[in-house]
Amino acid sequence: MIRLMSFSQCVDYIRSDYYRITGRRGDSLLRMFFAGILDVGFRFLFWWRLSKCTNPLVGGVSRLMYRLVGQMAHIDIQRDTEMGYGILIAHGGPVVINSSAVIGDNVDIFQNATIGSSFFHAAHIGNNVYIGPNVCIVEDVKIGDGVTIGAGAVVVKDVEAGMTVAGNPARVISHKEPGRLVWRRWNKEWNKHK
Fold this sequence. Notes:
Blueprint: H1 7-22, H2 29-35, H3 40-50, H4 56-73, E1 75-77, E2 82-83, E3 88-89, E4 95-97, E5 102-103, E6 108-109, E7 113-116, E8 124-125, E9 130-131, E10 136-138, E11 142-143, E12 148-149, E13 154-155, E14 164-166, E15 171-174
Parallel strand pairs: 1-4, 2-5, 3-6, 4-7, 5-8, 6-9, 7-10, 8-11, 9-12, 10-13, 12-14
Antiparallel strand pairs: 14-15
């Protein structure tokens, strides 16, 4: 089920995504649009966030734009997917995320990542998680806060908070410095509309 939001709430989410790529949090919506236009991941998230707006005109135009940008960038994330503040889709697509996935705040998702499920029971991903290139997270697994998933990993089991995993199937390789690769973390206290 799609969680619709007011325009102001949508802007808070956009501001959090923008902060992750620029480090600035006080810019206007128009400035964010133009400054982030070259970043394909932000461009997709900009329209994806606005597609959840309760305003019928903004929501309708944004649904069309997010689909168009998603097709061009090979990013497939449905409107009813739950994603928190400060999502960073680095290097664009292809990225595929099942609509039943739940993604926390300040999550980095790199190219060729798949968070999938055949039966609509996809992963629950915590806050401050780094998902490297070519990662597959399969079915209903729980990824804890501060987890780092190395490039090419195939995650088929739960990963405890603060772990670094890699390989196929993914195995714990370290538990030092949880979340060390997630920079510019958005703080919910900065939201203007709570």
